[in-house]
Amino acid sequence: MSVISLEEWRRKQALLSKQTSPSHPISALEELGLTRTEIDEQMAHTMAIYIVLDRAHRRPFSVKSRFAREGAFYVGMAASEGWVTTAADDHSDNEQWGNHWVINESGIRMRRQLDEILRQATKQEDPAD
After folding, report:
1. Domains plus CATH for the chain?
2. Would you state the pLDDT for residue 24?
3. Helices 6-17 + 41-58 axis angle, to 10
């Protein structure tokens, strides 16, 4: 497990949470230190899902928002997998629905797993090695 400074971690998290669309994660990956040759299709999809989960966790977004429309594929995937929901409560007998996508417990667990994957993928080589 690599250790990064709190300041560096906050910078990376701020960058991810500012993404306006999960459909274009390449610029975020480049700013995190990856070159375009290191970004394959799977990494781009992973980053897009992470952006959706992070946004739903930090700032739930409207089902009609630009973010939801532009990232409809990834929002739909996250909803189908049960990582985000519009349900107003977590009870199975819930009949109330909201108009914002929010992350649930399963989504939080997945976000943590993706966070670790992305941390490993973006870790910088130590020049002292």
Report:
1. 7-122 (1.10.10)
2. 54
3. 90
Q: 105-122 and 41-58 helices cross at what angle (nearest 10)?
A: 130
Predicted local distance difference test score (pLDDT) of residue 127 = 44
pLDDT, averaged per 10 consecutive residues of the chain (129 residues), comes to 62 65 58 60 84 92 91 93 84 73 94 86 52
Among 43, 2, 51, 4, which Cα is nearest to 23's?
Answer: 51
Q: How many CA atoms does the CB half-sphere of 19 hold within 13 Å? A: 31
CA 123 to chain centre: 17
With beta carbons less than 8 A apart as the criterion, state whether 63 and 99 touch.
yes
Q: What is the DSSP string of 50-63?
A: HHHHHHHHHS-EET
Q: Which two tokens stand for residue 120?
A: 């490993």
- How far, in Å, CA of 89 to CA of 105, rounded? 12
Q: For position 3, what pLDDT does the model report?
A: 58
Residues 112 and 50: beta-carbon distance below 8 Å = no
Contact 71, 101 (CB under 8 A): no
